[in-house]
Structures are given as structure tokens and as C-alpha cells.
Design brief:
Elements (H helix, E strand, L loop, with lengths): L5 E5 L5 E2 L2 E2 L1 H12 L5 E4 L6 H10 L9 E3 H12 L4 E5 L2 H9 L3 E2 L6 E4 L7 H12 L3 E4 L5 E4 L2 E4 L1 H12 L4 E2 L6 H10 L6 E5 L2 H11 L2 E5 L6 H4 L8 E3 L8
Parallel strand pairs: 1-4, 1-13, 4-5, 6-7, 6-8, 8-9, 9-12, 13-14, 14-15
Antiparallel strand pairs: 2-3, 10-11
Helix pairs in contact: 3-4, 5-6
Length: 254
């Protein structure tokens, strides 16, 4: 395998599953750190702040600098700040997306606004979905932090943010805009902020439709690991293949 300067890891299904670390990934990251290479972490999970993600990584044995952690919330907030006319937004989501929007100078309101942002909300209710659908039908632009239909946990898979965004979009009859992977926005932010060329970067993930396509859309190399959402046999049937396919990241150390 080629040597890279920026190893960009997905989190859920790649580095950990729920609250349990994936040992092969943890060992590989420790190996990189011993070589003086500090990885980057990209997650479509919009519920957590950078600080919370840093603590979660620490709980599975990984010390990660705060400025090496990127989420769909951060990328979404940066985008929304550029299109919001009056700096007010409607939001469905948890602390991660709410904090990111506030840090971009936006105001979260319950009144009708021009933009509705949807991130994962584990306290989702029928009432919240009804209100979100009304915002869109009254003219708000629907922006989802990510399109993940499901994500792995300790017991299998749980509904992802994309499931709820598509529900609202179907009710309102609109097409949502998604910012998280497979959009290459987060990889582009890393390249811009840390001055990397595309050939110096590699995207590592378990989900072909988000992680691998994110790297392909961006134009960097990709590594698919068979530890989460998309089985290797399904990946190998795709028209656009990852640069590498491994069962787990320990294979790369042999």
C-alpha cells in the first residue's frame, strides 16, 4: 500500500461500533501514531460535538487532537451560514448540529425560517416530524447533515438521519440537500485547512455509499474495511471500486 500523509477515518463501523472499539482499527491507528502520523476523523454523526467525539475516541484508546476531528455538523453549519439571509434556522437535531450552527453565528428559532437543518435526533417524535414537514411546505429549504439510512451499533443497525430526512421530504414533496458523506465537503475542508494534495490523502471506511464514494468523489485513494455497513462482496460488485479492500486494517500491517 502507498504511504499517505493524511489518513482519514470514518468512525461508526470503522473505528468503533457503538461504544466498543474495533480492535484492528485501534491497533492500526496506534501504528500510524508511532510513525508520527496523526490521523483525521470524519463522521456523518451530527449529534456529537468535537469535544464529545474526542472523549469517545479516548474511551476506545485513541488520543485525537481536537482539530483533527470533523463532523457533518461542522460542514453543514459552514454551508448554512453562507446561504441564510437573516441568520435564523429551524433545526431538528442534537447538541452537535446545534452547537455548530451557533458557533457560525446562526440563531435557532421555532418560527418559520428559510432553512430547516435536520441532524440525527434520538428524541425524535411524531410532533417534531409534523413541525419539520410544515416548515418545508411553507418554503424552508431542507438540508440534511447526512443521508445515512442506518448505522451500526452493538446490536446490529439503527435508523440513521437519512431515514428521517427522506420521510419529511416525501411528505413535503421536495428534494433535500445533504452535506455529509458521500459529499466530498469534509475532505476538501481537511485539504484546505492542512494543505494536503489529494494524492497525499486516503479515505478509510466501512460504508461504500458514504465513505468510499466520498473519497471517490473527492479524488483521493480509498480503503474499504469489512467491519460495518457494506459487505466486501457487495463492494466488489460496484462500478467504481475502492483502491483497496481489506477484511480489517490489521491486514495493512502485514
Amino acid at each position: 500500500m502507498l504511504a499517505y500523509k493524511a489518513y482519514c477515518f470514518d468512525l461508526d463501523g470503522t473505528v468503533y461500533r457503538g461504544k466498543m472499539g474495533i480492535e484492528s482499527a485501534v491497533q492500526f491507528i496506534h501504528h500510524l501514531q508511532r510513525q508520527g502520523i496523526e490521523p483525521y476523523y470524519l463522521t456523518n454523526n451530527s449529534s456529537k460535538t468535537r469535544e464529545t467525539l474526542q472523549q469517545l475516541l479516548k474511551s476506545v484508546g485513541i488520543e485525537a487532537p481536537l482539530h483533527h476531528i470533523y463532523s457533518s455538523s461542522l460542514a453543514t453549519a459552514k454551508y448554512v451560514a453562507t446561504i441564510c439571509k437573516n441568520n435564523k434556522v429551524n433545526v431538528v437535531g442534537e447538541a452537535g448540529i446545534r452547537t455548530a450552527l451557533l458557533e457560525e453565528g446562526l440563531e435557532i428559532t421555532e418560527e418559520q425560517s428559510d432553512v430547516l437543518v435536520m441532524g440525527i435526533d434520538r428524541q425524535i417524535s411524531y410532533e417534531k416530524l409534523v413541525k419539520a414537514s410544515a416548515y418545508i411546505q411553507n418554503g424552508a429549504k431542507l438540508i440534511g447533515t447526512n443521508e445515512d439510512i442506518k448505522f451500526p451499533n452493538e446490536n446490529g443497525f439503527a435508523p440513521g438521519n437519512g431515514s428521517f430526512v427522506h420521510l419529511v421530504s416525501n411528505v413535503a414533496g421536495v428534494t433535500p440537500l445533504f452535506i455529509g458523506k458521500p459529499s466530498p465537503v469534509m475532505l476538501q475542508i481537511i485539504a484546505d485547512e492542512h494543505q494536503f494534495k489529494k494524492e497525499e490523502m486516503v479515505m478509510i471506511g466501512d460504508n461504500y455509499d458514504t465513505d468510499i464514494l466520498c473519497g471517490i468523489h473527492f479524488g483521493c485513494d480509498t480503503i474499504h474495511v469489512n467491519t460495518g455497513v457494506t459487505p466486501t462482496e457487495i463492494v466488489k460488485q460496484q462500478a467504481q471500486l475502492p483502491t483497496y479492500c481489506v477484511e480489517n486494517l490489521i491486514e495493512l500491517l502485514k
